[in-house]
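stage 2 :: seqdesign
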């Protein structure tokens, strides 16, 4: 489980750092903000990234989720009741699996290109893998 938790930690931490960079105006890996919006938001008509505050909240949530993965594998120890770890793992399992699965449901969703293609090829498979990782951590904690 150390490999699973470590992998989740690295992916979510790097993604959180990317969100922090975006919050402060970095457009990478896109050439400009509009290209970044098109590749990451999937919202028709959006022309700007979300507010700095919202981006930082998302990044913070990812960092907390990354730490919970380490806690679930007993790589780190937190001075909290174990039920919080179990509940966190269960919640993250549901969130990541649902987010990953919804992409492949035959429900019409208004999403902008190129987000739609990137989501099907890269984002959702990675999110599903993270969800399966959280499920494995949850099972070992029960």
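stage 2 :: out
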């Amino acid at each position: 489980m150390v490999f699973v938790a470590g992998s989740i930690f690295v992916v979510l931490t790097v993604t959180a750092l990317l969100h922090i960079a975006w919050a402060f105006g970095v457009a990478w890996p896109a050439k400009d903000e509009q290209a970044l919006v098109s590749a990451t938001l999937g919202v028709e008509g959006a022309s700007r990234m979300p507010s700095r505050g919202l981006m930082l909240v998302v990044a913070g949530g990812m960092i907390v989720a990354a730490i919970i993965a380490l806690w679930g594998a007993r790589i780190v120890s937190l001075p909290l009741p174990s039920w919080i770890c179990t509940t966190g793992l269960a919640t993250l399992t549901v969130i990541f699996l649902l987010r990953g699965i919804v992409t492949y449901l035959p429900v019409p969703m208004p999403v902008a290109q190129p987000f739609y293609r990137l989501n099907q090829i890269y984002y959702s498979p990675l999110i599903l893998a993270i969800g399966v990782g959280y499920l494995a951590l949850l099972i070992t904690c029960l």
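stage 3 :: structure notes
- The chain has a mean pLDDT of 95.
- Residues 1 and 16 are 22 Å apart (CA to CA).
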